[in-house]
Design a protein that fits this description.
There is one protein chain. The protein is mainly alpha-helical and 432 residues long. It has one domain: MFS general substrate transporter like domains (Growth Hormone, Chain: A, Up-down Bundle), CATH 1.20.1250.20. It contains 20 helices and no strands.
Length: 432
């Protein structure tokens, strides 16, 4: 959880700075503030494009060498990329070198984060007792709003204590440089974590075969599981980035709310999200993963149509209600997700399966969700198309989970035993 806080602090620091800083600082100005935001969001999407590659490589070696070693590498890479982002000169000083550097560092950041989620939740899920896996595996999920809270808190303090010119000049950079301290703490903790016994058994048993390309084995022998994992991720990812990224754009540019005001409202909503995730994870061990997830997918549709009119009022209570409800609905689909996805795949392919299902979907969902929403708003001058966008995503995710079995309380060893054997020698690729 500590390492995940560090990595998501840095990832969401970029997400928040996209609207507040990068659109103005690193791109040529056209007179329309949404143009700069759209350009920054395109660079933001680059990180998501890199995540499947990171998920593939980290997943492959994580299934061979262990979750712990790869998690140490990922936190180091994200820390370096984020620190260097704080050093990039502005477009006025460096021209197109500024956005090009931002693209390169964003790619490195996304590549490292591609291996983060799968390893972090597996290290917890594989250690957890069968009847509490949903609860314990939800804690790395809770690290996401905590990391976001830290990023939002630092930016809020900077924006409140500095003038707008000072904040745009150097204040935002301090938040990126502070990532070095968080990374050191997270890296130290990760060095002291042990691998789960079930993983050690899987890699040392005589029946274990190490695939030359785990993703090929997954697609060939477990295609439905991969598609199910992608379906589980879809609405969760779109909903989250609409709430935490596009909402900032909407409130700042359309509703004209002050920067520090927007960040403070987000901070309160993230605190609610942090509290809800472990509670929903606990509930998933008692009443099941599916009922909670399906309820969240259905409620996401309601939120998608109702949130923007609430925000458009400009009333603090209404805005906080809209954001808070969005994150509460998100918790219903996000908290059960690690246990659901871990229980889909066998141990020897679990890191690869989770990483591919999670990260490929992120390219199709979260990476473009703020861009799609901003473009729809700019084109139609209405939030109704955004509601339809959420409806389509929710329907696809609902269908994916509707046709899966409930797995709460089942042993991972039992699930491994029921996986259909692969009819080839995975070391040589030859038929047995």
């Amino acid at each position: 959880m500590a390492g995940t806080v560090a990595e998501w602090y840095e990832f969401f620091l970029y997400a928040t700075a996209t609207t507040l800083v990068f659109g103005q600082l690193f791109f040529p100005q056209t007179g329309n503030p949404l143009d700069g935001v759209i350009s920054a969001l395109l660079v933001y999407a680059v990180g998501f494009l890199a995540r499947p590659l990171g998920g593939l490589i980290f997943g492959y070696y994580g299934d061979r060498l262990g979750r712990k070693k790869l998690l140490q590498v990922s936190i180091f890479l994200v820390g370096v990329a984020t620190f260097l982002m704080g050093c990039i000169p502005s477009f006025a000083s460096w021209g197109y070198g500024a956005p090009l550097s931002l693209v390169a560092l964003r790619f490195l950041q996304g590549f490292a984060l591609g291996g983060e989620w799968g390893g972090a939740v597996l290290l917890v899920a594989e250690h957890s007792p069968d009847d509490r896996r949903g609860f314990w595996a939800s804690w790395p999920q809770a690290a996401v709003p905590l990391g976001n809270m830290l990023a939002t808190l630092v930016l809020t303090m900077m924006s409140l204590s500095l003038s707008n010119d000072a904040f745009l000049s150097w204040g935002w950079r301090v938040a990126f440089w502070l990532s070095a301290l968080i990374v050191i703490i997270g890296y130290y903790i990760r060095r002291r974590v042990d691998e789960a016994p079930i993983f050690l058994e899987a890699v040392s048993g005589p029946e274990h075969r190490r695939p030359r390309a785990g993703v090929i084995v997954l697609v060939r022998h477990h295609p439905r599981k991969v598609l199910t994992a992608m379906g589980i991720k879809l609405v969760e990812n779109i909903l989250y980035y609409l709430v935490v990224t596009f909402s900032i754009t909407y409130l700042k540019i359309v509703v004209a709310i002050d920067t520090s005001h927007v960040l403070l409202l987000m901070l309160l909503a993230h605190a609610l999200h942090l509290c809800l995730i472990p509670l929903v994870g606990l509930a998933s061990d008692r009443i099941g993963r599916r009922p909670l997830y399906l309820s969240g997918a259905a409620l996401a549709v309601v939120w998608g149509f109702g949130a923007w009119p609430l925000m458009a009022t400009g009333d603090n209570a209404a805005i906080l209600l809209a954001i808070g409800l969005g994150l509460a609905v998100h918790a219903l689909v996000y908290a059960p997700m690690p246990a659901m996805m871990a229980e889909l795949f066998p141990t020897r392919l679990r890191y690869t399966g989770l990483s591919i299902g999670y990260q490929v979907t992120s390219v199709l969902a979260g990476s473009v969700a703020p861009l799609v929403a901003t473009t729809l708003l700019n084109t139609y001058d209405s939030t109704l198309p955004i509601g339809l966008y959420v409806f389509i995503a929710a329907a696809l995710s609902f269908a994916a989970v509707m046709f899966t079995a409930e797995t709460k309380g089942l042993s991972l060893r039992t699930l491994d035993e029921h996986v259909r054997p692969v009819p080839t020698d995975l070391t040589t690729g030859e038929r047995r």
